[in-house]
Amino acid sequence: MAVVSITNVNKVFGSGNRPQTVALKDINLEIQPREFISLIGPSGCGKSTLLRTIGDLIPPSSGEVLVNGKPAHAARLNREYGMVFQSPVLFEWRTVLGNVELPLEIMRVPKPERTQRAREMLRLVELHGFERHYPWQLSGGMQQRVAIARALSFRPQLLLMDEPFGALDEITRERMNAELLRIWQETQTTVVFVTHSIPEAVFLSTRVVVMSARPGRITDIIEIDLGYPRTVETREMPRFFELVTQVREALRKGEDMRER
Amino acid sequence: MAAWELAKLLLQLDKRTLPHLWEIAGAFGTPSRRGGPPLAATLVEAALFTLRGAFFGFAIGALIGFVLGTIFAHVRILEQSLVPYVVASQTVPILAIAPMVVVWLRGSWWSVPLIAAYLTFFPVTINTLRGMKSPDPRAVELMRSYAASSWEVLWKLRFPASLPAIFAALKVAATSSVVGAIIAELPAGMQRGLGGAILNFNQYYITGPERLWAAILAAAIVGILFFVGVSLVERVVLRNIVRSA
Amino acid sequence: MERIGERLRNSTPPASVFIIFIVVWEVLVRALNIPRFLLPPPTAILNAFFDTSTVIFESAFYTLRSALIGFAVGCGAGIMVAFATARWVTIREGVMPLAIAVNSVPIIAFAPLMNSWFGSTNPLSKVAIVALITFFPTMINTVRGLTLVEPAKIELLHSYATSQLEVLLKARIPNALPYMFNAFKVCSTLSLIGAIVSEYFGGPRQSLGVYILQEAQLFRFTNAWAAIAIAALQGMGFYLIILLIERRLIPWHVSLER
């Protein structure tokens, strides 16, 4: 069964006499278990909106979003996905450990188990030893790792990530990419990942979904046949460059279609 | 207003506790002294008197606050040694000194703007300092890259950047300068202002509570008007700046 | 040790300014022969303080009590109304502009009215004014703190299907605490000002406001200054206590401000 199944989804913002924008038009997408899907496209192509409709944070205007065979709303109430935003969105009044425990607290996990699991997750993102620190004492990359640990703490099968490394420098970003792949393989989750970096999308994904703006729609889906594990060398393989070029051309084609 | 009359009706409050609204309204039309002008005229005169003191003090205090804040923003030693005092001076219930100020100035009218100015200068100083230091250091570097003088950095960058903070302070100060003006009139025994009017009508409260209410209402209106006035100026000056909250 | 040293270094400029200020005051007043009624030297104020300490302490206690009770009532009510206001958007849209307008009213003008209602020697008349003065800043700031939460935090909590109550407990209230402490700091000073000034409009003989006014009118200025000094100490003490509680309760915020 598909983890995410999107059928004929449309989203229109604005109502009444204000001008309407078509954020999503006729979106169809199936995501299988253990896939790593990147949504890529220019600003305003609706990739973040699509991610939020999967998370039931924005309702679609029409069409259907199923998560694990249930409507997205039921899946949210069932806490079936973890979310990571572009900014870490850490609660500055909580310690690193407290931040990772937050979702477990809300899900009424008993205190000892909660702490144990949070520590486990911090080890996974290689932040053990920082439990008692406050967010402001960490660097941007470390804060984002806390956010990932928090999203994974309740072991959701689905991870929704909205440009999580967009604010990081290139060097940190590449390191975080490698770590994310390791975590993805260790935890066996399905990931939907929004980005506007072509190499990042190619390096991480099993499939890259190319979108185009006004109206926001899917123009191409590219299989990334690089195999796993992927390392620093992967980025230097000829096939990697070919795929990067393929995605770039798909993006350009999407833009051309709009102009015509 | 409905709540007012309802409270009066339900709690059986007599005229001394809470006069009818129309009694207060009526009070404005009747003279407070036999053969004198109607109360409204007296109160408008008193309000103008108080407002003048408050406004003078506000203007002086704002100017001093702005100059001090600008100096503090530029001279670090002064900021470090004096700002804690400026802050501490505000934890002192400053209006307690009002009687002494009146003694210093031998009861002259200037004690009113002086106290109003004292209440104004503090928030303006602190917010000017904050505002002047608010620009992004990179913006300062940009100005330096144009070889701009310190004076230009001040007027083209720091001053515009500090305007929202300065106006926030001015709005607070607008209210406190009115409070200061009213309070300053008390120990000086000044009869012409709202403070004097309130004290005066308070003595005749039993025979005419609606007159004290009318005077208090006048004070409230002066306070709100001054605040609204400053807010309007703020809106005009900051119309092109995106408002944050 | 290092931290103590650093603290000493940081407090050296202000401390030296204070000592210089007191010494210059003393020397100038004596050297220039400034008459007592204008400005007595610090030593004379200290003397007057010891001579009249019973009266001053009694008055100071009375006034401080009104201020503290009024502060507790005003801030408490402000917080409660703020929670109700922040919860319902329609109430908020109606109440907030009104509260901001009323906040610009010189509430002290109501002091004589409270004296007529409760009697000028009844502490309630002072408590009521202090409560009114502290209510509005507390309420306005608390509403801001409860509502101005980073939207992404709320979105994150929604992704966990968090109940409204838990959004309040885990995001809105911690977010509001720094705003509330800012209000408390302002109100600590306001409450003493409110108590003293409403005593100017009439109060029991043994209260700071009445005492200061009376001594000033009787030309016993050193006594008045001694009472003012006590009022100042109370104001600073109250403020510092709030500051200390803030450090204890929301350490994350204090460290953010550095």
Short description:
The complex is a heterotrimer of chains A (260), B (245) and C (258). Chain A is an alpha/beta fold and 260 residues long.
Can you walk me through this structure?
The complex is a heterotrimer of chains A (260), B (245) and C (258). Chain A is of the alpha/beta class. Chain A is built from eight helices and ten strands. Chain A folds into two domains: 179 residues, Rossmann fold (3-Layer(aba) Sandwich), CATH 3.40.50.300; 68 residues, no CATH class. In chain A, the strands form two sheets. In chain A, strands 6-7-8-3-9-10 form a six-stranded mixed sheet, with helices on both faces. A four-stranded antiparallel sheet of chain A has the order 2-1-4-5. Chain A is globular and about 55 Å long. Chain C folds into two domains: 34 residues; 212 residues, MetI-like fold (Orthogonal Bundle), CATH 1.10.3720.10. Chain C is flat, with a radius of gyration of 22 Å. Chains A and C meet through strand 6 and helix 3 of A and helix 7, helix 8 and helix 11 of C.
Kindly identify the CATH topology of the largest domain in chain A: Rossmann fold
Average pLDDT over all residues of chain C? 85
User: Pair with the most extensive interface?
Assistant: B-C, 51 and 49 residues
What portion of residues of chain A belong to β-strands? 15-25%
CATH class of the largest domain in chain C: Mainly Alpha
**N- to C-terminal distance of chain C:** 20 Å
Mean pLDDT of chain A: 89
Quick tags:
heterotrimer; B: 245 residues; mainly alpha; MetI-like fold; 10 helices; C: 258 residues; 2 domains
Q: How is the secondary structure organized here?
A:
The complex is a heterotrimer of chains A (260), B (245) and C (258).
Chain A: E1 4-13, E2 21-31, E3 36-40, H1 47-54, E4 62-67, E5 70-71, H2 72-77, E6 81-84, H3 96-106, H4 111-124, H5 140-152, E7 158-162, H6 170-187, E8 190-195, H7 198-204, E9 207-212, E10 217-223, H8 238-259
Parallel strand pairs in A: 3-8, 3-9, 6-7, 7-8
Antiparallel strand pairs in A: 1-2, 1-4, 4-5, 9-10
Chain B: H1 2-10, H2 21-29, H3 39-74, H4 76-91, H5 98-104, H6 111-132, H7 137-145, H8 150-188, H9 194-203, H10 209-237
Helix pairs in contact in B: 2-10, 3-4, 3-6, 3-8, 3-9, 3-10, 5-8, 6-8, 8-9, 8-10, 9-10
Chain C: H1 2-31, H2 42-51, H3 53-87, H4 89-102, H5 111-118, H6 123-147, H7 151-159, H8 164-200, H9 208-217, H10 221-249, H11 251-257
Helix pairs in contact in C: 2-10, 3-4, 3-6, 3-8, 3-10, 5-6, 6-8, 8-9, 8-10, 9-10
